Amino acid sequence: MTAKPALVETPPVTRDMQGPVMRLTLSNPPANALSIATMEAMMEALKDARNDEAVRVIVIAAAGKVFSAGHDLKEMTLHRADEDRGRAFFEKTMRLCAEMMQMIVTHPKPVIAEIDGLATAAGCQLVASCDLAVCTDTSSFATPGVNIGLFCSTPMVALSRNVHRKQAMEMLLTGEQIDASTAKEFGLVNRIVPKEYLNQVVQKYAEVIASKSPLTLKTGKEAFYRQAEMSLSDAYDYCANVMVENMMFRDAEEGIGAFLQKRKPEWKGE
C-alpha cells in the first residue's frame, strides 16, 4: 500500500520575492483573521525585511475573497473560559496588534496594501496602517465592531489618521460597509483597479518606488509620520533639518548630478 503524502500546513503568512518587492500574503482564508499566529508571522517577516537590502518595497496581500476580517473572534471567545474571563489574552492580542501596526508605520521600507475583497475591523486597520493602498473595484471596507458591542477603538487610531474625522466617525458609529469608490473618496485607498489587473498594477507601482534611493525613501517615510504629529512651526523646523541632512547624502549628490547631466542615477544607499 502506498502511503499518503503528509499534508503540509500553509503558514498564516507566506513570503514571495518578485524582483525588489517582497509580497507578504495572508494565507488563512476564508477570513484571513489576525490571530496571534498570523500577527507573529507578519511581524517576523517585517523584521526580516528591515535589514534585507534585496527588499526595497513590501506588499501585503491576501488569499481568497476576504482581505482580512480582523481579529480571530473564535480564538478570543475560547479564552472567555479562562479564570480571568480572557482579559490577559485580550490584552496580549490588542498589544500585539498595536505593535504590528506601528511596525508597518515605522518600517524603513514603503508598505503597500493590495486589497481584493472585504477588509473589516483590524483588517481595515491594516489597510489604513500601510503607506499606500490599492484595491479592486469590488472591494469593501468596514469597522463593524459597534454591531457586536465592541467599538473598533484600535482600528480608529489608524483610520482617524488617514481619513477625515467625520468620515472616520461615520464608519465607526454605523459599522456599515463602504465600497471602493467611497474608500477612495474618504482617502483610505489610493487607487482602484479591475480585479484582473490588481497584481500587475501593484507590482508596477511598487517597482517605480523601488527604483528610488532606499536611503531617501527611509528618510522621507520617517519624516512624513513624525512631522504629521507636530505643530506647523515644529514641523517646518524638523523638516528643514531633515532636508539639510538629506542634501548631504551621497545619493542626493548623485541624483542631482544625474538630473543635471540627463542620465540615470546609480544609488549607493549612502
Provide structural commentary.
By secondary structure, the protein is of the alpha/beta class. It folds into two domains: 13-210, 2-enoyl-CoA Hydratase, Chain A, domain 1 (Alpha-Beta Complex); 214-260, Orthogonal Bundle (Lyase 2-enoyl-coa Hydratase, Chain  A, domain 2). Helix content is 47%, strand content 16%. It has eleven helices and ten strands. The chain has a six-stranded mixed sheet, with helices on both faces. The protein is globular, with a radius of gyration of 20 Å. The N and C termini lie far apart (61 Å). The mean pLDDT is 94.
Task: Give me a quick take on this structure.
The protein is an alpha/beta fold. Helices cover 47% and strands 16% of the residues.
Trace the largest sheet across and list its strands: 1-2-3-5-7-10
Alpha-carbon distance between the two ends: 61 Å
Coarse morphology:
globular
Secondary-structure element pattern, one letter each: EEHEEHHEEHEEHHEHEHHHH
Q: What helical percentage do the residues reach? A: 40-55%
Low-confidence stretches: none
Which assembly state applies to the chains in this document? single chain
Number of domains: 2
What's the CATH superfamily of the largest domain, by name?
Answer: 2-enoyl-CoA Hydratase, Chain A, domain 1
Keywords: Fatty acid metabolism, Lipid metabolism, Lyase, Transit peptide
Protein name: Enoyl-CoA hydratase domain-containing protein 3, mitochondrial
Family: Belongs to the enoyl-CoA hydratase/isomerase family.
Function: May play a role in fatty acid biosynthesis and insulin sensitivity.
